Amino acid sequence: xxxxxxANILKTFxxxxxxxxxxxxxxxxxxxxxxxxxxxxxxxxxxxEIDEILQDSDLYAQFATMYLEEQDKANxxxxxxxxxxxxxxxxxxxxxx
Length: 97
Description:
Elements: H1 7-17, E1 22-23, H2 25-30, H3 35-41, E2 48-49, H4 50-55, H5 57-96
Antiparallel strand pairs: 1-2
């Protein structure tokens, strides 16, 4: 499932939506990344850059899954709003009749 998310889309999600420029240990903890995995990728102890996240299959998959979950939430909210709008239009139509 996570392989459906292109690197460009994931890069934009990381930078714009999550605000990640470099993933530090606090952010890694926030996103439930295993500390051993973090240390494995952060070889220079300077944080993990977006390109390093994209190159690591485990981190890529984790953040891609996060992206897909956010998309599902957004689609669910949009669908709910659409239903509410349809109900309002229907109510207005019935009240005029």
